[in-house]
Write a structure and sequence with these properties.
Blueprint: H1 5-16, H2 19-28, E1 33-34, H3 35-42, H4 46-58, E2 62-67, E3 70-75, H5 78-107
Antiparallel strand pairs: 1-3, 2-3
Length: 111
Amino acid sequence: MPVPLYQVKAEFFRTLGHPLRIRVLELLQRGPLPVRDLLVELDIEASNLSQQLAVLRRAGIVNATRDGATVVYALSTPDVADLMVAARRILADLLAGQGELLAELRSEPHP
């Protein structure tokens, strides 16, 4: 029995549901980066980064290529970058709505 599409989508979003993985994807939006550069940007232990990159790689969200002793990671498709941009837009809209609500609450007279 095939897995329903909604279940596959949920698993995809669960894969994205870690702050470090999101940060890695944000960094990779600029282009491919070697692990050493990711470590500098993220300021975390290599083992922690390795675990998170493995999750993203197994899910097919990032690709790894080896150049000698250097491993370089890149987004597997430009659609991942588009998704990150869309998420930023959605969050900006949500937060703008909250800002308007907060301004309205602050402008109401106090009893």
